[in-house]
Amino acid sequence: MKLQINGLMSIVGWIAGILFMVIFGLNVIQITLRYLFGETWLWVPDLLRLLFVWMVFLGATVLYAAGEHLMVDFFVRRMAPKWRHATAAAIEAAAIAFFVILFFKGIEISEKRMRIPFDTWDVPTGYAYFAVVVAAVLMGLIAVHRMIGHLRFCYAKGESRHVERE
């Protein structure tokens, strides 16, 4: 399962990187058009907003999978390995609960926003909010995988492995 998650996160990371480059390119084009030619594309800010939301949520998913998100582990690192894994499993369980809430609220908000178009083009803003749902599913899968690994360690007999940042 870890290989599949790593492969998926590699693809998601590439998508987030491509979105960043598109956002950067569109901003450069907008600035160039505005200051050199006195023109602007009115639809670009809406597209940038859509792409930015997807980039942020996909990027956050990649960071979460890599264990590079913000966390405070001062006390956890000082625990015995078995307690460390038990605490990590509890943290992942709390994260799963959060991702479930995020999933359902993301669906609810996406559905409501499907009736509200962007300012300059007739595309529902719900497509931007659907990034929350996708990120919640991906992060939830990662959290379940991690929690199972931590619980396996807690119930293993006689092993003395240490916590790894997966």
Give an overview of the whole structure:
The protein is mostly helical. It is built from 4 helices and no strands. Helix 1 runs antiparallel to helix 2 (44-66) and helix 3 runs antiparallel to helix 4 (126-155). Residues 159-166 have low confidence and may be disordered.
Mean pLDDT value = 89
Please tally the β strands and state the result.
0
Task: Note the main sheet.
Answer: none
Unreliable spans are 159-166
Strand content: under 5%
Total of DSSP H or I helical runs spanning 4+ residues: 4
Compressed to H and E, one letter per element, the order equals HHHH
Rg from alpha-carbon coordinates: 20 Å
Gross morphology is: elongated
Topology:
Layout: H1 2-37, H2 44-66, H3 81-113, H4 126-155
Summarize the structure.
By secondary structure, the protein is an all-alpha fold. The chain has helices at 2-37, 44-66, 81-113, 126-155. Helices cover 73% and strands 0% of the residues.
Keywords:
166 residues, mainly alpha, 4 helices, 73% helix, disordered C terminus
